[in-house]
Design a protein that fits this description.
Number of strands: 6
Low-confidence stretches: none
Strand content: over 45%
Structural class: alpha+beta
Oligomer: single chain
Number of helices: 2
Distance between the termini: 51 Å
Length: 133
């Protein structure tokens, strides 16, 4: 390092040194937080919960709007949710939908279509399966 280089470093304003120090502290803090969170919050298993939001007529059928909650830490892909509608005097009717991607601690919305009216029978909604991304 020559004399000119040392002179340039010595001439840098204090604001540059302060901003650089703050940037370094923020970067180190974020790296530390992400590392701590990775150690404290292991992926574990997904915890899928489904809920009916509303039922609405759709022409000749009925739409059941649903929400799939993933209360676990781990992400799932290809989550299949199936609904079974049982009406008196009629065979059971099934409908399913697939959610492409449901991260941990999140929710996704979708819908199931039935020819019968879900308000007049027994409707069961549950998760059928998923894949690990």
């Amino acid at each position: 390092m020559g004399a000119q280089d040392q002179q340039r470093i010595a001439q840098r304003p204090a604001v540059e040194w302060i901003a650089g120090g703050i940037g370094l502290l923020i970067t180190l803090g974020l790296i530390g937080f992400i590392g701590w969170q990775a150690l404290q919050d292991p992926p574990g298993t997904p915890q899928i919960e489904t809920r009916v939001l509303r039922i609405a007529p759709q022409g000749d059928s009925h739409l059941v709007e649903i929400t799939a909650f993933n209360r676990g830490n781990s992400t799932v892909a290809g989550l299949v949710v199936e609904g079974t509608l049982t009406l008196p005097g009629r065979p059971s009717e099934k409908s399913s939908t697939t959610f492409d991607y449901v991260p941990g601690h999140s929710q996704r919305r979708g819908g199931l279509f039935f020819t019968g009216n879900p308000r007049e029978g027994d409707l069961e909604i549950h998760a059928k399966g998923y894949q690990r991304p």
